Amino acid sequence: MRTTRTRRLAGAIALALTVATAATACGAGEDGKAADGGQTRVFAADNGQITIPVSPKRVIATGYAVPALLEAGAPLVGVSSWKRGIPLFNEQERKKYDELAKVAGESASETNYEAIAQADPDLIVIGVPKPVLADIDIKRLEAIAPVVAIGPSVPSMWRELSRKQADAAGAAAGFDALKTAYDTKAKALAEKYKAVVPQLKLGHVGAYGEVAKGNFQREFNGSWGTNIAQDIGATYYGQVKVKGGGSKDVSEYPSIEELSTAFAQADAITYSVAADGSVPAPVKYVLDSPLWKELPAVKAGKVYPFRFTEAATYRAATSTLDAVDQAFAPLLKQ
Amino acid sequence: MTTTGRSALLGAALLGLVVVAVLSVGIGAHAIAPGEVVRALLGEGNPSDRAVVLDIRMPRAVLAIGVGAALAVGGVLVQALSRNALAEPGVLGVTAGAGFAIAVGSSFGLAASAPAELGLAVLGAVGASALVYAVGSKSPLRLVLAGTALSAVLLGLTLGLRLLFPDTFDVYRFWSVGSLAGREQAPTTVPLIVIGLSLLGAFAVSRQLNAIALGETVAHTLGANVARVRTVTLLLITLMAGAATALAGPILFVGLIVPHLARRVAGASIPWLIAFAALLGPVLMLAADVGSRVLLPTGEVPVAIVTAFLGGPVLIWAVRKYGAAPL
């Protein structure tokens, strides 16, 4: 018994030493050079002015930074799980995502600090919304490598943040080409739908967050399901009853009883569906409600499903534009 | 208290139940004038108001009555059976079993719909209480210990599954906060029939439980078959608490607080206790459910949180004012 305990204790000490060594080895110098001799720079992030390597070689990405850095081709050595973005990855990104060590789960509270230390990173890019940062022990991560937190406060912020995340990871090259492709497509679609879409008062039924137990998610301008359609001229009328900060400034969770008042003025309603076109449970709950069938937009047949509302990079959002185009196509025939 | 006095109080409780039920159909997130509520009940008026009243609030009120009665009467039975004033139906592992089944089911992608969730919860509740009974049927103390131990094990396993499978965590975290909202599309008829029949069974077995409360020797003398009564009572608790938990998720306070309130007017008589609990449980659930709809400016508070807020102070007040009544 005593031998087993001694072995366990020795193992724990060895692991602690490994983590401490990794942390020491990865620390950046203060004179513009990292401990390993590489150049450093000061980067403005949500968690302050952080000294990071100019050309990081081993990067950890979590949350929204995962799709952004996969797309940018950053030198990743570990990522958090990002299931919602999998359908939007291309073949190369998917292969890379599958190969990489998963150092955190879908939520920030599932961060595996030991796995991050073992990946021996020289930069950690945390891409979670600011309120969620409280779930992460930043001090503990800073002992391993420089940490830059670059997370959205509202869903539509992926545009600026994906660029900033790629920049931090030293992988900004190619970013502008993808942005230009997106902007060109959005402009063309705005032209295509200019006679119909801007005239509509739109409502959106979402599938994110705390949607359960008799509630539904209503999304306004700037939210997950709406922000990309806005780039082609869509406007989602109204605003949240009480601003709760972050995504709660652009979406809310009313009782199903309020469905008829929430969308009474809507000329058309859009709703989020999965990548394969299937209807997620929170949206199906709304679509199956007797109140849904009484809405003027539903009676007029003006309801449109949106795929790929999870997009948080320009390449992925280009797929979303295609999906929005497909969903809105019937409007041109009416 | 005399039988006449108790009957009068029971009538008052029934009247209170009717009043709260009417309020629960009239009050909600979507404001509807009282006249329109009546028109909706008659199948007339605005189609949206009619849908809110008939398709959302009415089924929800029926659910609150069924769940409240099941948990409250289940609480009376489990306290009588275990002779433990702090026992509630969850002590038999019913809630933990239902939660574990939901976690396992969602790990395998089987909890994708309301009917599937309901079926899993029933299976888990029945399985857990069968195991508890198999281990602890010899005595009330062993029963409570077995239930507590199994609950702890199942809660640990559920936590492990949630950590291993994030999707499970997502399904479980919504299920684990008891609520009556959003159940109007679920198939509730069978569980409600099970609750109704179990309530009748509880009345049928109540006199023999009364005899057992006097001690097993006395019960034998009075002609009660102790083992059989204990088995039937346990089965009734499982059916009621299992069906209620499957319908609304875990709502822990009702089964604990209502028997204490009922005991103030019913005394130690099990039949009277059951009668009062069957009315006071629904009153508490309906009142809490109305509160859950109006407390927030947008959306709802799960009813289990409201019952905890209502039940906690009431329990403290009852214990301080009257002290613990003998079981």
Notes on the structure:
Chain B: It is found in: Cell membrane. Chain B: Pfam families: FecCD (PF01032). The complex is a heterodimer of chains A (334) and B (327). With 334 residues, chain A is α/β, with parallel strands linked by helices. Chain A has two domains: 14-170, Nitrogenase molybdenum iron protein domain (Rossmann fold); 186-333, 3-Layer(aba) Sandwich (Rossmann fold), CATH 3.40.50.1980. Chain A contains 13 helices and twelve strands. In chain A, the strands form three sheets. Chain A has a five-stranded parallel sheet with strand order 5-4-3-6-7. Chain A is globular and about 65 Å long. The model of chain A is unreliable at 1-6 and 12-31 (pLDDT under 50). Chain B has 13 helices and no strands. The model of chain B has no long low-confidence stretch (mean pLDDT 87). Chain B has helices at 3-26, 34-41, 47-82, 94-107, 114-136, 140-164, 166-175, 189-213, 216-221, 226-248, 254-266, 270-294, 303-322. Chain B has a single domain (63-322), classed as ABC transporter involved in vitamin B12 uptake, BtuC, CATH 1.10.3470. Chain B has 327 residues and is mainly alpha-helical. Chain B is globular and about 65 Å long. Chain B is 77% helix and 0% strand. The A-B interface holds A 81, 83, 105-107, 110, 212-215, 240-242, 252-258, 260-261, 281, 285, 288-291, 294 and B 28-30, 47-48, 51-52, 55-57, 112-113, 163, 166-167, 169, 174, 177, 179-183, 185, 293, 297-300, 302.
